[in-house]
Amino acid sequence: MENNVSMEQIISLCKRRGFIYQGSEIYGGLAGTWDYGPLGVALKRNIEQLWWKRFVLDREDMYGMDAAILMNPQAWVASGHVAGFSDPLVEDLKTQKRYRADHMLEAANIDTKGISLADMDAAIKAHKILSPDGNAFGDVRQFNMMLQTSLGAIQDDSSITYLRPETAGGMFVNFKNVLDSFSPKLPFGMAQIGKAFRNEIAPRDFIFRVRELEQMEIEYFVAPDTWAENFEKFRKEVWSFTQDIGLTQDAVHELEVADEDRAHYSKRTIDFEFDFPFGRKELYGLAYRTDYDLKKHSEASGTELAYFDEETKTRFIPHVIEPSFGVGRTLLALLTSAYKEVQDEKGETRTYLAFPSAVAPYRACVSPLLKNKPELITKAREVFTMLKKQFGNIAYDDNGNIGKRYRRQDEIGTPWCIVVDFDTLGENPDLLDTVTIRNRDTGAQERVVIQDIVKYIQQ
Ligand code: ATP
Predict the structure, then answer these.
(1) Highest mean pLDDT pick, 135-144, 212-221, 423-432
(2) Hey, which of 36, 51, 215, 282 would you mutate to test ligand 1's pocket, going by the most ligand atoms within 8 Å of its Cβ?
């Protein structure tokens, strides 16, 4: 199912309303970077909190981590990233602009599944595919996406290290630490939310493909003969998470990744794809990584990363199931799912973001009906303070007229607008200490006693 919203609508709303700005915008930007503004960070944190609750807090078999972004470079040699974390690159021979070779082929409707580098090169030449500027391409070659940096005052080969390209590495190297500190029994997992960096050849599609990204990842360690059942469990968990945060379920699809397209370490991978405005693309990955990583790190570090099973008195390297979630792609899928336009009774277009309450930047907004009546303001501030203590993310808005405030809150996805009016103060004695609460999605209003507001908006 394609959602009708366009990327232009999403990007413009994100900028206008303070969700996401172009990175370093006043300097002309920096490709592949975006800055999250006040509402974007609120949305992002809510997504991360829901994820952490589901996968860490609500479980007994998960250990949270926050490993350093900078790691000993040997770890990335062992994992295979230094040698092989690359994408196919082609260069426009005239402008020297660089592109992903597979993306150029896909744009020309040429299937790239399982295709080798040499075949990509041959296909670009055979089909005479030109760059977006209409020029010929050079040869296709591999481009390593690891972002390098150097540590310390002296810059030579020995000071080179990398900004991690995925959070996973930090968990594998801490496997033994967690085992020693907590003596968990298999199966158990490690979970982490954090930044990762990829020198993407062609960052594009807003926050979909960026160079500085954020991931929510789990490495779930299992006995080798139980990998399939644990894979299935996480498959269901991924679906439940997409539902929890409010992604349009019809827009989420599974793609069984073919043998020849899987990462070198994986024996089975399902990509969860989403119908973004620019097409169906990867949202999350679920991979069976076998014992590849622990084995490689054991060999390279000389530290045995094995598990001793008390019952069977055997020692072995556990296998790994890895669900990997991109925070930015979740946020973009959420914006795509939530964006609605309806005609109001006057025939005007009303735009709103239908976020579930748990992810909306603001849970509710409180307003006085008029902003020049001190008695209304005093009461509205009272209601606001009471709700803010309870929920934290409550807005107070007395700018412009009430219609404008509703529009503003609709556009940022605030589920409830609460208005203090003269009836609240007892102009109609029957309505003393009641407020109106307006529903974002239907526009319907109800009168609710102030004491009951918390219960009302919690439901
Ligand atoms: P793609 O094929 O789109 O480049 P990938 O297969 O390389 O993605 P993984 O290495 O499986 O991605 O990374 C796990 C998750 O991290 C992805 O499913 C996605 O949500 C997120 N992710 C990866 N690369 C990026 C990026 N450049 N920008 C934003 N999110 C990303």
Answers:
(1) 212-221
(2) 282
pTM: 0.94
Q: Does the beta carbon of 282 sit less than 6 angstroms from any atom of ligand 1?
A: yes
Tokens of 172: 């594998």
- Cα(60)–Cα(113) distance, integer angstroms: 39
**Secondary-structure breakdown of the chain: helix, strand, coil percentages, each rounded to the nearest 5:** 35, 30, 35
- What residues have CB less than 8 Å from 358, skipping those under 6 apart? 46, 50, 244, 245
Q: Among 377, 388, 458, which Cα is nearest to 420's? A: 377
210 contact partners, CB below 8 Å, separation of at least 6 = 32, 33, 34, 200, 203, 328
- Nearest 5°: the CA angle 267, 312, 237 is 40
For the chain, the average pLDDT equals 94
Mutate to test the pocket of ligand 1, among 329, 330, 331, 334 (most ligand atoms within 8 A of CB): 329
Stretch 217-233: mean pLDDT: 97
- pLDDT tens sequence across 331-347: 999 999 999 999 888 88
